[in-house]
Amino acid sequence: MIPHTTLDASAADLRAVADTLAALADQLRPPPPEPPLTAFGVRFGYSPAAATVPEAISDVQAVAALPPLVTQAEAQQFHVDYNANVSSDTRLWRERAKDYRRAEVRARISRGLTGLGVGNRLHSFWADHFTTLPKTFQTYPMQVSMTEEAIRPHIAGRFADMLKAADLHPAMMYFLDQAASAGDNSPYALSRPGTGLNENLGRELIELHTIGVAGPYTQEDVREASNLLTGMTYGPYAGVRYDVRRAEPGVETVLSVEYPADSLAEIHRMMDELARHPATARHLATKLAVHFLGDEPADLIDAMAAAYLANDTALVPVYEVLFAHRSFPGAKIRKPLDWMIAGLRALGVTPAEVEALPGDFIDANIIAPLGLMGQPWDGQGGPDGWPEQAEAWLAPNQLAARLDWAMTAPTALFTQLGRMLPDPRLPGLSDNTALWVGRAQSAEAGIAAMVPGNRLTDVSHAIEVATHAASARYDRKFGIVAGYGGHGIGQEMHMDPFLPNEGSPGRGPPGHRTGRRVPGGWTPLRAWRHRRVDRDGQ
User: Is the pTM of this model over 0.70?
Assistant: First the structure.
């Protein structure tokens, strides 16, 4: 026996030992698991290719580096050419304008089918944040240039740079009528009665793009910002320019900061200050959290806003906080375009196949259905973009349009591609998917046995054989519960005959025609109207 010994230790010594043991326990505790690959893809992208935060950031940077579909210079030249030629061949030039929209649709979908899912999802998010709508056919290409040149290259850079590129882009100035704005006291407005200040761009700059509707600004801030912007204009022949004759004279004060209204540099300075504002940081952090996670966890928003402000509006540190957060999406519903992309990815459609689709197919099978689902291309209806609330996408007609597209578009697509639809019953299915595939095969076999002259248990036997065959094919156990099965369908619940899911063939009452004639035969409605049989077919 070891004698009991009392250690003469002070309370401080005991606390020190306890703290040491606690620290060791923390070190030995296993780290929390990383989000699974599929979960990461569901949360932040169109595909699960990026499984870690560094991979996701690399994904975003790769998307930002893609070449543009159309440049601002090309779009401006199309505007000039359109004006010069549309009167002689209106239909031709409108179709050329639509081709730019179709090209953007192809690109947005095909990029979503690549492994760069996170970056493409962020591109769509920021394009929606800076919503613009083409008002005329000749501005269709400029709309594409907006998302391709003013937004996408900046998704891995600084928000302040994206803000200046987007809000001073011709597409934005056309959409929000900035091209026609002039200071009320400017030489331009004074010499042209009926012209004057338009506050649309100044208002959306503050309310939607930076500070947010709930931010600390006043109507006077909106008007002063609009006055400062009055020098900016655009025309297809002169391009984007600062015209001092259109600028409101004097000094404008926006959120307590003074700006002389005399140069593009002062407009840039105002936008930089708005981008760096704490309210802007919180506004953007909240929008990102709601879009990707479906809720507003305060700790996440605070951390994202802090990363934004600490890094001079750089977006990558904000994404890193978002991607590392452990929250999983709440009650989110995919918007129609995202839903389409997910469906095409599930069908194994390749980016090259999407890029090769002709324009009329894009119109009929992508653009038109998107409109029926509630998300018309270039049709947000206002500068605040698409809603995030689930109820905005759950109207009965919208859900019906989704179902119709799911039933018809795959066949149309694969007919266009000249190949067969893929068989979903392939090895490697999840347990749940495999279960339903096995049941589908069993049901299919049972229906095939429902022909005049067969007996009731011929159907039971067909279901049993098909179930066992599915078990062998997928190397999974599809059980058959003895004593259970189906039943007749008619004017009452659970009508005769009872139909077991197993049994020997050739027993029970024979079937006869009680259905409707279809090309090539009959479709049974109720093949048997006789007595109940037991599981042995008697």
Answer: yes
